[in-house]
Write a structure and sequence with these properties.
The protein is about 30% helix and about 20% strand. By secondary structure, the protein is of the alpha/beta class. It has a single domain (about 5-190), classed as NagB/RpiA/CoA transferase-like (Rossmann fold). It has a seven-stranded mixed sheet with strand order 3-2-1-6-9-10-11. Strands 4-5 form a two-stranded antiparallel sheet. Strands 7-8 form a two-stranded antiparallel sheet. It is globular, with a radius of gyration of 16 Å. The model has no long low-confidence stretch (mean pLDDT about 90).
């Protein structure tokens, strides 16, 4: 691991965290992003979708879980396994009943929800702090998504606010590369 790349990633993380979008701006952008996502062929053709429980600085795609369920899509959220330090995809049938407060202070599937295989999910929605037009993604620095996405066959789709798009994300060999990125105003196929 190059110390230059690590330093570049940390500098970009600081820059992205300093963005001062208001709650109203994030909610307006999240609504537009969800509408764009639902119009895409990759959404419409997906039989199974992996969601993320958004943190306060990430696009709020939470209501898309219920939409996917209403459309008959297999829907999954991640559950953290602290001992293994990894996430596993877990089926959601009823968000009100199936979600509990989880690790890192985000909602995750309760223990009664069944684990899914990544190959049961056609569309993988991926959060991040920054994205670039080559499919580069800057996460929070723990590598959880890089490990989760390694070897998965579903479409890896970055979910991004406009201000999270940058010219270049520093990447290393182990960093997952996305297939596409959706923002409130565009869809970028890599």
């Amino acid at each position: 691991m190059s110390t230059d790349i690590i330093a570049s990633k940390e500098a970009l993380r600081r820059e992205m965290r300093a963005h001062g979008a208001t709650l109203a701006e994030r909610e307006t952008a999240s609504t537009a992003l969800r509408e764009r996502l639902h119009s895409l062929d990759c959404w419409q053709q997906a039989g199974g979708v992996l969601f993320f429980a958004p943190l306060s600085d990430e696009p709020n795609i939470y209501s898309s879980i219920q939409r996917a369920l209403n459309e008959g899509k297999r829907s999954a959220l991640l559950r953290f396994k602290p001992r293994e330090q990894l996430f596993e995809p877990v089926a959601i049938i009823n968000p009100e009943r199936d979600l509990v407060a989880g690790h890192f202070g985000v909602r995750e599937p309760a223990s009664h929800c069944p684990i899914l295989s990544m190959n049961q999910l056609d569309l993988l929605l991926v959060p991040g702090l920054a994205f670039d037009s080559r499919g580069g993604r800057l996460g929070r620095g723990k590598g959880f998504y890089d490990r989760l996405l390694a070897g998965s066959h579903g479409i890896k789709c970055g979910i991004s606010f406009e201000w999270q798009l940058v010219e270049s994300v520093p990447t290393e060999a182990h960093d997952a590369i996305l297939d596409c990125i959706v923002t409130p105003t565009r869809w970028m196929k890599i």
